[in-house]
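TEACHING EXERCISE
Course module: macromolecular assemblies
Task: Read the component lines below, then compare them to the predicted structure of the full complex.
Student: A.B.
Group: 4
Components provided:
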Amino acid sequence: MYDLIVVGAGPSGSQLAWRFAQNGKRVLILEEHGVVGRPVACSGHVSTKIWDTIPYNEDIVENKIRAGVLHVGARSYEFRKKDVVSYVLCRERLDKYVHGLASEAGAETMLNTRLTGFTHHKDNVDVHVYNTQTKQKQTIRTKMLAGCDGPASAVRRTLGLPDPKMLHGVFCYVNARDASDAVELWFDIPKFFSWKIPRGASVEYGLAVEKGSAKAYFERLLKQQNVKPSALHAGLIPYGLLKRVSKGRVFLCGDAASQVKPFTGGGIVYGMTCAKIASETIDVDAPETLRAYERAWRRELGKEIVAGSVLKGVYSTPLMQPLVYFASKLDAERLHMDMPTTLVKPLRNR
Ligand SMILES: Cc1cc2nc3c(=O)[nH]c(=O)nc-3n(C[C@H](O)[C@H](O)[C@H](O)COP(=O)(O)OP(=O)(O)OC[C@H]3O[C@@H](n4cnc5c(N)ncnc54)[C@H](O)[C@@H]3O)c2cc1C
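Instructor-supplied answer key:
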């Protein structure tokens, strides 16, 4: 019997598997795709806090960001810092890197293996899987099950927990070298924004929408910027604080638990931070410790998620946008991209 089965080899799942395996636990990762890190549906733009969760690795860094240009209505504002404020990571290499850490620590992986359901017992969980290549079904027993299976989490749905709200994100790469170190944002679509990220060897254009056609807004963005995309990538972005992310011997982590910044859609750092917290609070032999996990991750990120939702509400309201412009002039340099409470807590330790 496994101590922990982790569904999903994304950054949250591999971080969780790595930490539990390091603690001497018998861990199995189930991944429905045949290659870790593919397909890519993420920009990989993260704050420096990423290195609190994994050892620094220059090989996964595509660009270092020191500046931002915000376009609010007809106005634009640029801020610049001396130090690196964020990193543009190759998302495929990030996933492979964190998964490599988990494997080196002893975690096993079954690729092409999809969770189809699970049966809860008092002392264990029977996990039902399907191999998409061999078409074989199998049941594997574990003490505890972790759903790190992304925004449309099958584990969350099987537990009967409600879905979070979702944004639809879409982006493309344009094959042009861009040595800039500034990310650009346009607050010109309902309830979110469009972005341009210099990736060194290419430039990324993207946006997310809550309702309506992401494609229509995206075509408008490409026209405005006069660019022709090489390939399109798309995915869901969950947001909002869920009341509960565990039940019995099963818990959620990462996008599955909506551990995502509502005002930017970024979930890599939050997901891996929560995975780290899970490894510090959960004892696979004591399901009651899931309550400690629920308390600990909310203590760390609950206020940030609520503050991030408020911030999203403010910049999404056209009448408030002039305010956003003036606030950004005053505060963009103070706002930590993972901690929106830094806007109201100037003395907070960053
Ligand atoms: C357009 C877009 C741009 C984004 N840009 C950024 C950004 O710049 N910075 C940032 O921090 N975040 C960004 N995000 C969000 C980021 O992608 C997620 O927060 C992050 O991937 C969450 O990691 P995760 O490990 O929780 O889930 P995922 O990365 O979604 O991993 C889930 C894994 O589970 C597997 N899986 C799913 N179901 C099953 C199943 N039934 N059985 C087995 N395996 C399964 C999947 O194949 C996948 O590998 C973006 C998202 C989108 C859509």
